[in-house]
Fold this sequence. Notes:
Layout: H1 2-29, H2 32-35, H3 47-65, H4 75-97, H5 104-123
Amino acid sequence: xxxxxxxxxxxxxxxxxxxxxxxxxxxxxxxxxxxxxxxxxxxxxxxxxxxxxxxxxxxxxxxxxxxxxxxxxxxxxxxxxxxxxxxxxxxxxxxxxxxxxxxxxxxxxxxxxxxxxxxxxxxx
Length: 124
């Protein structure tokens, strides 16, 4: 069962890390005007907050992958996965407060983060 859990962790955490690395990276480097077509919420959010979220997403993506590789502080991967779970709960709250009911991606990210939390607690 150990190898199956390890493979499952790397598949789910790897996909989650890639998504957040991309999403966080564009929040860090793109302008509000470039982000608005993809993320309507940035119109009412200070760019410093958007950039901070982007940096946290990039750091979380790194946290899912780097600590478990050498086995040094693998608890950081668990912390990153929990952080992504909380981030998406906040994102859903923002979407709902704006009347946006398109939550499929957020729900999928919550499920992936929850799966990563579970795998991190059982495998790491």
